[in-house]
Amino acid sequence: MCANCGKEGGDVTNTCNKCKMVKYCNAACKKKHRHKHKKDCEEHVRQAAERAAELHDEKLFKQPPPPFEDCPICFLRMPSYPSGSSYQSCCGKVICSGCGFAPVYDNQGKKDDIQKCPYCRAPAPTIITVEDSHERYKRRMEVGDAHAIYNLGCCYHDGGNLLCGFLPHDMDKALELWHRAAKLDFAAAYTNIGFAYKEGRGIEVDKDKALHYYELGAMGGDTVARHNLGKLEANGGNFDRALKHLIIAASDGNEQSLKFIKQMYTCGFAKKEDYMKALQLYQTYLGEIKSSQRDEAAAARKDCHYY
Question: What is the pLDDT of residues 147-162, one digit of tens each?
Answer without folding.
Answer: 999 998 998 898 866 5
